[in-house]
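Notes continue from the previous slide.

Worked example: a multi-chain complex. Inputs as given:
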Amino acid sequence: MKIKINKNFLNLEENYLFSDINKRVNAYKEKNPNADIIRLGIGDVTLPLPKIIVDAMKKASDEMLSKDTFRGYPPEYGYDFIKEAIKDYYNRNNVSLDIESIFVSDGAKSDLGNIVDILGNNDIYIPNPVYPVYLDSNLMSGRRIHFIEGNEANNFLPMPDGLNNKPKVIYLCSPNNPTGATYNFNELAKWLEYAYKTGSLIIYDAAYEAFIVDSSPRSIYQIPNAKYVAIEVSSLSKMAGFTGVRCGYTIIPLELKANDVSLNKLWKRRQATKFNGVSYPVQRAAEAALSIEGVKACKENLDKYKENARLLSDLFDRKHIWYSGGKNSPYIWLKCPNNMKSFEFFDYLLDKANIVGTPGVGFGKFGEGYFRLTSFNTKENTIKAVERLEKLL
Amino acid sequence: MKIKINKNFLNLEENYLFSDINKRVNAYKEKNPNADIIRLGIGDVTLPLPKIIVDAMKKASDEMLSKDTFRGYPPEYGYDFIKEAIKDYYNRNNVSLDIESIFVSDGAKSDLGNIVDILGNNDIYIPNPVYPVYLDSNLMSGRRIHFIEGNEANNFLPMPDGLNNKPKVIYLCSPNNPTGATYNFNELAKWLEYAYKTGSLIIYDAAYEAFIVDSSPRSIYQIPNAKYVAIEVSSLSKMAGFTGVRCGYTIIPLELKANDVSLNKLWKRRQATKFNGVSYPVQRAAEAALSIEGVKACKENLDKYKENARLLSDLFDRKHIWYSGGKNSPYIWLKCPNNMKSFEFFDYLLDKANIVGTPGVGFGKFGEGYFRLTSFNTKENTIKAVERLEKLL
């Protein structure tokens, strides 16, 4: 064919991180078939869903069996019942949302990728290291990308100091994937102040909010006036173990206007054209997860992950190894000992302790020399890994 | 804020079709509270899901309850089990698909909207009247749109005669929404020949394929060499009543290359960045629907809709009123009697027969003077509507 393709796709780098990791692990296993390898690189939940959620999904499935309760096309922005459940969930964190500002979707990744559709050719500011979707989705649209460096000095929580005063689109992820670093109230307030001053938009990824245990904001809307400058994208993936069930949501406040055009209205139009709503049984499952009882059941799972994170971060405290995360996050982001590079430490850990983690450089160039461990394995395996690391490091 | 928005959104026309219809119906009901209104405007399935599908969804939900069978992130392009089920479904229609060419999604609307992402600034050719997503998603990207006129003379099956020889992107929908018109083998072969000759891409919407009862192709890949010029988008929405369950799929053949770039590879990258796969229980439900037993159960529902369509088209045959569809489609697209305009006939039908349909002009300017009736109401109501129309027309 002679039609034109989107040439921006040719500028994307292939991401070989996880296939590279698998290759190295498989090569090691071939040489050492009896090695008891512990995987602390998992970026996905592992504990089963609470019964209250599965019951809701099954009940909704049964409704589809009968003519009187069958449901066809769902509303593109979500049923009122789930939007109300999200509103209530936020209310419990002292955030008041307009029901019209809530858009339910099949996941935060879809929304974070698709949000680019409604925006023009802006300068894009992305923390580094960070979740790769912000970068790749903007490269696909040919945007000018600028990285905001995370490092040990700023605790991997880059601030706007030193940025120019032009309007821009800024991505923030807190608690951050992969560093686990979490902005506190004052830090977020400074970002918002910068956004007001410069006419910028903040796209705030709150997917890990349920891991927060200290007083850090769980929603950017806990900061006054955030509704004038910020979109929040979140998900039930981590909060309720929904990575396989698929449900997320995006808040686009009615107050959010770019040169008098309502972003809420643009997104409504985008979703009505290119999305047809979330599966009805999934929406009922999400409603159950967001209820007071559901949140309580989900918290039991979260507490198990948090306990694993504590076991790991206690070890690095004892060893005086620098790390971020571990407290408000399932991730521990540590500085590789002896100035090892990320992949060097990967090989070292695999060889000397049979532990698999994720090289930090896989999340951006400023991740070089760092390493991510996660708390999604079992407690037994996490304890065993801590014992091995205790001896090794 | 001072950031730039996507200004193409400002060129979109608001679609007031269904809100306008509701206003007129509500105004009529207020004046005539006892009117027994029959809705033949429904564009959504109404019959409940077969038990085999709901059982599969519930079984998969139960698997999420146990650590050993719990599933996290699904593969972005679909589990192998559902890709195999789609491959088998096509095999039964004598189409052989490469498993790598199949992408499972939350619905055809998402894929039809998002496919624009991987394409460059091409001339876009869209039949008119037609499903509005092709137009709106391309307007959002600022593409140059050209309409291919459907009319009585071409039976609302526009052909490439008269089009220039430049490479272009062409949307085809067969059986067509809203006209029900269905391309036969020779007509599709001519479109493909035109696409080869001009280096064009055909985006083929096969969402209504399960309604086909004659020898018309159910997949564009039934025509030899279609894999070099056509993407096919389809859905379980109509075939299995999945409008509320949400599952569709897109076939991008490995053979499909634009100036040596594989569209399959571009879409893989797009989906891996901006999509995270379909809900596991939904994929199991879809697998059940596509099985031989599932298709048989779904056919019982389809036969009921088809019987309603037959009742309506028989009436228009008797009345010598021109129409398309009704045979391979749940839609009957009729010429408004006495040269009435679409909305004039809408008011006439509502007032004289208490029947609600959809004005054809709502699907594009070449739909003016036509009207869409659907077979998604009950048999009882369809018979009652036919009796009223028998007297009126």
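Summary box: The domain at 51-293 of chain A is CATH 3.40.640.10 (Aspartate Aminotransferase; domain 2). Chain A has a mean pLDDT of 97.
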